[in-house]
Design goal:
This protein folds into 2 domains: 178 residues, no CATH class; 218 residues, no CATH class. It has 13 helices and 9 strands. The strands form 2 sheets. The chain has a 5-stranded mixed sheet, sandwiched between helices. Strands 1, 2, 3 and 4 form a 4-stranded mixed sheet that branches. Strand 5 and strand 6 form a beta hairpin. About 5% of the residues have low confidence.
Length: 500
């Protein structure tokens, strides 16, 4: 073999070696990617196999058509102020006589007639309301005495106590239990129907649905005021999660979304507001936040971006940045992922030290300790990004933080701003927990009603209240509450009636 042939063979071997190295490199990148995806899938898999739909799993919160119909009818009756003939009410079956009864008497404040004569009792009007405590039905027997004056020939009777459902039989306690079981405990109406039957009185799902629809309409003014007060806060969290919704007409589902907005855990107004929308379009966030200018803690979803040109300041979530490296570390125990997590943990250690600080003191501590660490972390990201190949899982984890770097350090500039978005993720968790009991939202209206009622339930929890006690008291007081004083019934302002 002469010299030329040797040179040709050497060149061929070098080319084959370079090609093999390229193949090995690409294969390694693919393996890293697959390991990363596998680790995430294992982490998010909870061991439960999916279940096929059955006759009972009918909607997001078992929202039947009857609930929407009742809500629409109630709204129409409020909007239509024209005089119209009284609608004949269907004859209601009497409540079972074996149920325990509580006698509640209503008498006029005075039994003295305007003419000076003493009124005489000539009879009484009786109405019964159905109440419920877990496992037991009771009946409130309301007795309204009739008093007459022989001289004036007039009759005086105490007025009918106002109710959330006019002329209905459920008490505020029964309605509160129904809403809590449905929206907080995620019990579909067919299950509640069975529970009530075991307690001694079968109440049909259509009746329960009608009550829920009417409650949703009655509570809407309170829900609207809660949104207004939330938007007065200078710092908000935002997040969204998908919810399947039944498409009209074809009995198929498409992906709708629950948007969650809440104040920070240290805010004076401790509240969360859910907004149900048919899509994930950024227009939903712009509509909700229209006119609001403050600091928004959120993830990297593009739907929030338009607001950042209209006076809203973007605050990045450090937990999202850390999560990228956490998933990477679970996949391959890489040294870069571990070092990144350790440096981010130092930032959280500072937040833990400043937990009880005032906003001013927390801001000073962050400027002294967190700012230098953030600068070092940014330099570390830039250096190591040049050392890892494009397309690798490590590169993607670093790129996420570098892309968000303008927003990630902003929390240091204001002691009222949190380091991450975990608070709102905790508030959106009830929607995820309920998915084992429902499959989809029955309609846009039912989804919006669910979001509205869950605003009140979750906000009451945030303020340390028992949601059942809160809703029971609020629905008892709401019919007589002045519109100008409705904010007194918001969860962060609520005081039990007998303590006012």
């Amino acid at each position: 073999m002469n010299a030329d042939q040797l040179r040709q063979l050497a060149a061929q071997l070098l080319a084959e070696s370079a090609e093999n190295k390229k193949l090995i490199h690409n294969q390694q990148l693919l393996n890293d990617k697959l390991k990363h995806e596998l680790a995430i899938l294992k982490r998010h898999r909870f061991g439960k196999s999916s279940e096929a739909p059955n006759a009972h799993q009918t909607s997001l919160l078992d929202e039947l058509v009857q609930a929407d119909i009742a809500a629409v009818e109630m709204e129409l009756s409020r909007a239509d102020t024209r005089a119209k003939p009284e609608k004949r009410q269907p004859k209601r079956s009497p409540l079972p006589p074996e149920l325990p009864r509580q006698i509640i008497e209503h008498e006029p404040d005075s039994t003295q007639c305007d003419c000076g004569c003493q009124l005489q009792r000539i009879g009484e009007g009786i109405s019964e309301k159905l109440d419920y405590t877990p496992g037991t039905f009771t009946v409130e027997r309301h007795i309204r005495g009739k008093w007459a004056c022989k001289l004036c020939e007039c009759i005086i009777q105490a007025p009918v106590p106002p109710q959330i459902i006019d002329k209905g039989i459920p008490t505020s306690g029964l309605l509160a239990h129904l809403l809590i079981a449905k929206y907080a405990d995620h019990l579909p109406l067919y299950r509640q129907e069975n529970i009530f039957a075991r307690a001694g009185l079968a109440i049909s799902r259509s009746t329960l649905s009608e009550w829920i629809g009417r409650c949703g309409v009655a509570l809407q003014p309170l829900v609207d005021v809660l949104r207004e007060e939330l938007l007065q806060q200078s710092v908000l969290h935002a997040d969204e999660t998908p919810v399947p919704m039944l498409a009209p007409g074809n009995k198929k589902t498409h992906r709708a979304y629950i948007w969650a907005y809440c104040s920070t855990s240290a805010a004076t107004v401790n509240a969360v507001v859910y907004d149900f929308a048919e899509t994930r379009a950024g227009a939903n966030a712009r509509r909700f936040l229209e006119g609001w200018q403050g600091k928004l803690v959120c993830d990297d979803y593009s739907g929030y971006k338009a607001g950042f040109t209209n006076g809203i300041t973007e605050i990045g979530c450090m937990a999202h940045a850390r999560r990228k490296f956490y998933d990477l570390y679970l996949a391959n125990k890489g040294q870069i992922a571990e070092q990144a997590m350790q440096q981010i943990q130092r930032l959280y250690d500072i937040e833990r030290d400043a937990k009880e600080f005032t906003a001013e003191a927390k801001e000073q501590l962050r400027l002294q300790r967190s700012k230098p660490l953030l600068h070092s972390l940014h330099q570390w990201f830039m250096t190591h990004r040049q050392k890892v190949p494009n397309g690798s899982a490590t590169a993607k984890a670093i790129d996420y933080s570098l892309k968000r770097w303008q927003a990630l350090p902003h929390y240091c500039d204001d002691g009222n701003v949190p380091i991450d978005n975990n608070h709102v993720e905790n508030q959106i968790r009830p929607w995820a927990l309920g998915r084992s009991n429902w499959l989809f939202a029955g309609s846009l209206r039912s989804g919006q009603r669910a979001a509205a009622i869950m605003r009140l339930i979750q906000s009451s929890k945030l303020n340390g209240h028992d949601p059942f006690a809160y809703l029971k008291d609020v629905m008892q007081r709401l019919p007589t509450q002045r519109a100008s004083a409705i904010s007194e019934l918001l969860p962060h302002n609520w005081v039990v009636a007998d303590k006012v």
